[in-house]
Amino acid sequence: xxxxxxxxxxxxxxxxxxxxxxxxxxxxxxxxxxxxxxxxxxxxxxxxxxxxxxxxxxxxxxxxxxxxxxxxxxxxxxxxxxxxxxxxxxxxxxxxxxxxxxxxxxxxxxxxxxxxxxxxxxxxxxxxxxxxxxxxxxxxxxxxxxxxxxxxxxxxxxxxxxxxxxxxxxxxxxxxxxxxxxxxxxxxxxxxxxxxxxxxxxxxxxxxxxxxxxxxxxxxxxxxxxxxxxxxxxxxxxxxxxxxxxxxxxxxxxxxxxxxxxxxxxxxxxxxxxxxxxxxxxxxxxxxxxxxxxxxxxxxxxxxxxxxxxxxxxxxxxxxxxxxxxxxxxxxxxxxxxxxx
Length: 341
Known about the structure:
Blueprint: E1 2-7, E2 21-25, E3 32-35, H1 41-45, E4 55-59, H2 71-80, E5 87-91, H3 93-106, E6 114-118, E7 126-128, E8 131-137, E9 145-151, E10 156-158, H4 160-165, H5 172-178, E11 183-184, E12 190-191, H6 193-196, E13 197-199, E14 205-209, E15 227-231, H7 236-242, H8 251-260, E16 265-269, E17 275-276, E18 284-285, H9 286-294, E19 300-303, E20 308-312, E21 318-322, H10 323-328
Parallel strand pairs: 3-4, 4-5, 5-6, 14-15, 15-16, 16-19, 17-18
Antiparallel strand pairs: 1-2, 1-20, 2-3, 7-8, 8-9, 9-14, 10-13, 11-12, 20-21
Helix pairs in contact: 8-9
């Protein structure tokens, strides 16, 4: 699966980073899911191979503008691109009010259906683009949520030895059993698909979290997850200067949580614009975020940049590609150039 960062700044964009938006996509599929949609997300998409026509769902973590101001523009761009398929939006109920007001005031015309589900009443029952989606409540100045994604289309392996032991000849029935379907044999026997096939590997899971000052709220949901994407707006020292009122996490707090649960991969994002690349003449260096987290978290730590495309392989390895290079390559990921950052 691929996780593409379209925006990694908090609050407002900087010269290096746009505001929050993250895309999730199954390998081999053009369909994708968007988590948050900060201002100008539609512009960021132009530099990737992600198409608004193939977008299956938009999931908004909370109502702050750096996570949702780009939604009307994205919907309008999808309309102008010729979209006709319905689009699912899972978001706080207030987002529907916001969209309806913008659509009404600007006379936006949408020729496709918007199917809205208020996250406050979400029942953890949606299967979208190959993922089962679960919601976890977080702690922020406003209600904020994380989304856990678990792939639900893991290939199944046929238990051929068992079939051979029971004298079941190879034939069309084997193919049905491998898909988990029940079959009747010519001799009248009923074979249960789940008895003769099994998942070829474990399903991969990851969490993409909204703004949150208490990573421990994810403790139950993070079980058996390979990856957590979480905000690290500040270093701990800056957070202490700013105070607790913004209700954001520091790199140290997220790293400590990830270390405590034995998480294999951690990607930090949503950095305050005060953190800049290299050695800035003014402000702080993004390397301060990395150093603080790396001093605590000993597994695979990544700091997301705009257009980083992380490839979570079936064996659990996490590699990094460039979404802009994928665009130039006609939408094909050049896996030979994937690197562990």
